């Protein structure tokens, strides 16, 4: 007896959305499980600390969203624009939730790039995303009302787009340019990222139209912002703080005797000379910028003159004079701050108050009553989110910025004591990426070069222009992970030379492979 099976139906309907989703999650089940666990940690954070955490810089950003008519003299308003977009919802909890999604989005970009473009196995691409997903300080940074996570997502997004496409159209170049403009308007250090991308595309011999479109798309919003800044502050710039911040960088070693400053001829510079000798100064330059204490001269011109165009220009001239007069002292202090990033431990720096703002706190946060553009820091916060609780503290009404709820808050405090990415691991990742650049010297570092330079630059730039701060390290971590993962994909050996073409015989049909597309593993 012969059984004849049914002929297959050629008109069978395609699988439904549910089936496609299950198949997708099955293919990426390891990363999906890790991502879900990381999301759960962020839910615990939100349950433990509502609505958000605060840093000293947070209040300036909130003021920019509550009073959007004038740009900040201290820092670009890009993050304030995001807060302004979300302001109709009147919720800092929503801001924190969105920033947690941004952090998870960074991990998704890492995984997608390494799997789809460079062909890493699922476990390898997942491992590269683990520091962003589980580092307690990354989670805490996402919960702060701060610009850093938005900046991180923009930078990683730009690097991902550039590495994903072998050939870029001018339209894609324009999109990347707009993203770079948002990056620069979020943090000033975003503009050097544009220079890195341009150099990388020139090395890759990208069409000039693409590069021109990218530069133009980046320049237009930045120039427009600078024009707005000029209308408010009188000078065509993005901030009035770059010279002041550089003054802070040089304040620990600047010696007016070695600088040759004559008080009779250069009184404006002489007024900035710090009276205490360098050997007796504080170990952090922040003391000589933010607070008018003994021996600190930045506030010598009076309250309200600190971040004006004139003061910024004078402070910048002083700092440049110090660097040119004492180059070895400058290089020494930059090197010290650069290598401070790679400790196994986490020494308290620059002071206990700043250090503790990166820890999950054991108590509620009472917002300070500091003067702002058109009010005070606590009233600005209440104007943005009227749901913030007001409590009587020492017989005065005070705004509570962060509430604690146990056991969730206690859990995250304990988690932070155990799960963190040591600085020495970041250094090891950079060394692995550097090895990948070196072995690809014939192609000027190949695909490893861009993420590695960006990670290295994001750590070096604060050390060279401001001062070490732990939060400046975190945006470099995903880029360092990218560079190391691409390097380790094929070990430290040089990429193999392409095989010689085989001539097909009349009896053999030769098929010429098509160029690699965006989803094809890159030879790196």
Automatic annotation (TrEMBL):
Protein name: Glycosyltransferase RgtA/B/C/D-like domain-containing protein
Entry keyword Transmembrane: yes
This protein's UniProt keywords: Membrane, Transmembrane, Transmembrane helix
Feature: compositional bias, Pro residues: 515-524
Transmembrane portions of the chain: 30-49, 89-113, 120-139, 145-164, 176-201, 207-228, 421-441, 447-465
Taxonomic lineage of the native organism: Bacteria, Bacillati, Actinomycetota, Actinomycetes, Streptosporangiales
Chain residue ranges for the region called Disordered: 498-524
Compositionally skewed regions (Low complexity) per UniProt: 498-514
């Amino acid at each position: 007896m012969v059984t004849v099976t049914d002929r297959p139906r050629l008109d069978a309907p395609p699988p439904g959305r549910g089936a496609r989703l299950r198949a997708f999650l099955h293919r990426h089940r390891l990363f999906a499980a890790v991502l879900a666990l990381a999301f759960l940690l962020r839910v615990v954070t939100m349950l433990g600390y509502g609505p958000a955490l605060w840093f000293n810089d947070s209040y300036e950003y909130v003021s920019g969203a509550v009073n959007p008519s004038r740009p900040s003299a201290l820092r670009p308003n890009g993050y304030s624009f995001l807060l302004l977009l979300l302001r109709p919802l009147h919720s800092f909890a929503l801001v924190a939730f969105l920033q947690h999604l941004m952090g998870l989005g960074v991990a998704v970009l890492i995984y997608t790039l390494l799997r789809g473009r460079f062909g890493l196995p699922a476990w390898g691409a997942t491992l590269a995303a683990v520091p962003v997903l589980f580092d307690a300080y990354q989670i805490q940074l996402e919960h702060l009302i701060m610009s850093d996570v938005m900046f991180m997502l923009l930078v990683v997004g730009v690097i991902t787009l550039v590495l994903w496409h072998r050939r870029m159209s001018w339209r894609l170049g324009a999109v990347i340019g707009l993203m770079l403009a948002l990056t620069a308007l979020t943090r000033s250090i975003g503009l050097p990222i544009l220079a890195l991308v341009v150099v990388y595309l020139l090395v890759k011999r990208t069409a000039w139209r693409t590069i021109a479109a990218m530069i133009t798309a980046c320049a237009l919003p930045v120039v427009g912002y600078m024009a707005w800044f000029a209308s408010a502050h009188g000078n065509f710039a993005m901030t009035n703080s770059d010279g002041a911040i550089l003054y802070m960088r040089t304040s620990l070693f600047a010696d007016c005797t070695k600088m040759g400053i004559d008080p009779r001829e250069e009184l404006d510079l002489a007024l900035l000379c710090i009276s205490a000798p360098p050997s007796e100064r504080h170990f952090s330059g922040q003391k000589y910028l933010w607070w008018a204490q003994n021996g600190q001269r930045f506030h010598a011109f009076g309250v309200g003159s600190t971040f004006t165009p004139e003061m910024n220009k004078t402070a910048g001239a002083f700092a440049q004079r110090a660097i040119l007069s004492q180059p070895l002292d400058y290089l020494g202090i930059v090197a010290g701050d650069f290598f401070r990033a790679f400790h196994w431990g986490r020494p308290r720096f620059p002071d206990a108050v700043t250090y503790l703002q990166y820890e999950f706190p054991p108590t509620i946060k009472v917002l300070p009553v500091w003067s702002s553009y058109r009010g005070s820091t606590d009233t600005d916060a209440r104007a943005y989110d009227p749901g913030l609780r007001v409590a009587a503290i020492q017989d005065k009404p005070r705004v509570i910025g962060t509430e604690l709820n146990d056991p969730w808050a206690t859990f995250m405090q304990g988690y932070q004591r155990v799960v963190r990415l040591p600085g020495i691991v970041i250094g090891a990742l950079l060394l692995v990426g550097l090895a990948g650049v070196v072995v690809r010297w014939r192609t000027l570092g190949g695909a490893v070069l861009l993420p590695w330079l960006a990670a290295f630059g994001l750590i070096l730039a604060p050390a060279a222009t401001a001062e070490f701060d732990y939060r400046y390290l975190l945006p470099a971590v995903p880029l360092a992970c990218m560079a190391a993962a691409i390097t380790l994909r094929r070990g430290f050996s040089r990429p193999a030379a392409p095989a010689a073409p085989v001539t097909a015989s009349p009896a053999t049909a030769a098929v010429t492979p098509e160029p690699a597309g965006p989803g094809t593993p890159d030879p790196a």
